[in-house]
Design goal:
2 copies of one chain form a homodimer. Chain A is of the alpha+beta class and 80 residues long. Chain A has a single domain, classed as Mth169, Chain: A (2-Layer Sandwich). Chain A is built from 2 helices and 3 strands, in the order βαβαβ. A 3-stranded antiparallel β-sheet of chain A has the order 2-1-3. The termini of chain A are close together.
Chain lengths: 80, 80
């Protein structure tokens, strides 16, 4: 099965990368652009058959290595 | 409205970051992990009312600044 993982900065945390991109877009004339938030998107192939076990393992992976839980939130979808 | 943008490395392009994460996960004992692909996830607030115009502008933004079309693919969803 395939997991899609989204890691985003927590709302309370400063997002300098997002601010920089917003400024760059304004500078190019895209005045309609408001807040920009930038995170990570990961696709992981999993050789697993048990959906519940795969979810548990993914949650552990996200917490331990794929995100920094102090400043980031994560969510994932499991397909197939 | 709010745009969600996904930027991923093209399939034919080497993804060293994905390989590194896959190796790290294997090293931690997650043997079920296969291929890993790492991209970017962006959320942009748009002060716009015309959905078609917003889509056109977003596509232009993705092509010009938010992705590198030589080595990356992008797709986006528009909400609200």
């Amino acid at each position: 099965m395939k997991a899609k993982i989204y890691v985003t900065p927590k709302k309370a945390v400063l997002d300098p990368q997002g601010k920089a991109v917003a400024n760059a877009l304004h500078g190019l004339g895209y005045a309609a652009v408001g807040d920009v938030h930038i995170g990570k998107y990961m696709e992981i192939e999993l050789k697993a058959t048990d959906q519940a076990a795969a979810k548990k393992q993914l949650d552990e992976m996200c917490h331990r290595i794929l995100s920094n839980p102090v400043i980031e939130d994560y969510r994932f979808e499991l397909e197939g």
